[in-house]
Amino acid sequence: MTEMEKMKAGLEYCYADKELIARKTQAIEWCEEYNAIDGRDYAAQYACLQKMLGSVGERVWISKTFSCDCCKNIFIGNDFTGNINLTILDIREVYIGNHVMIGPNTLITTVTHPLSPKLRRNYTAFAKPIRIGNDVWIGGNVTILPGVTIGNNVVVAAGAVVNKDVLDNSLVAGVPAKLIRVLENDL
């Protein structure tokens, strides 16, 4: 298997692989292009996101500075706001539903590394997809870790580290994020 095939299969892979580096380099170029657009030119920003990302719904906006690892593994629904300094390490797929708001300085990462220093010296990584449901509000300075699924009608409080799945209709907070209370779904 190639390193790309291993990565897509959820297996241990070498992130120093030439094909993976080329993909990351393309993402850097696209993010630089996006971040260079006048912040008031929403049409140009939206057109650039349509080119960059795997899919983009209607009324999608991401503030500067936006950073990602691949671009094409990000799939966003309708009515999305990504605030200042959003980072999505989309080595694997990141699916974001409709009516989602993400606060400033948030990190969504599908990639992690082994605890073994020997494996880390060999540029080893693992990656798992992330899914974020509909009607989700993610506060500022949140970290969402690999493999997490966040349900519908969820609020993730500022500063939380989400390392486990979050059920529908939940308010979670803390490090690691824990259920604070069940939310009413008034839709």
Could you explain how this protein is built, in words?
The protein is α/β, with parallel strands linked by helices and 187 residues long. The protein has one domain (3-182): 3 Solenoid (UDP N-Acetylglucosamine Acyltransferase, domain 1). The protein has helices at 3-8, 18-36, 42-52, 117-121; strands at residues 13-14, 55-56, 60-62, 66-68, 74-76, 80-82, 86-89, 94-96, 100-102, 107-109, 111-112, 124-127, 130-132, 136-138, 143-144, 149-150, 154-156, 161-162, 170-173, 178-182. Strands 3-6-9-14-17-19-20 form a 7-stranded mixed beta sheet. A hairpin with a 4-residue loop joins β19 (170-173) and β20. α2 runs antiparallel to α3. It is globular. The mean pLDDT is 97.
- Tell me the number of structural domains: 1
* Percent of residues in β-strands: 25-35%
Query: What structural category do the secondary elements indicate?
Result: alpha/beta
Distance between the termini: 47 Å
Query: What is the CATH top level name?
Result: Mainly Beta
Return the string of H and E elements: HEHHEEEEEEEEEEHEEEEEEEEE
Q: Quick one: biggest sheet?
A: 7 strands, mixed
Number of alpha- plus pi-helical segments: 4
What is the CATH architecture annotation?
A: 3 Solenoid
Rg, Å, rounded = 17 Å
Describe the secondary structure blueprint for this structure.
Layout lengths: L2 H6 L4 E2 L3 H19 L5 H11 L2 E2 L3 E3 L3 E3 L5 E3 L3 E3 L3 E4 L4 E3 L3 E3 L4 E3 L1 E2 L4 H5 L2 E4 L2 E3 L3 E3 L4 E2 L4 E2 L3 E3 L4 E2 L7 E4 L4 E5 L5
Parallel strand pairs: 2-5, 3-6, 4-7, 5-8, 6-9, 7-10, 8-13, 9-14, 10-15, 13-16, 14-17, 15-18, 17-19
Antiparallel strand pairs: 1-12, 11-12, 19-20
Helix pairs in contact: 2-3
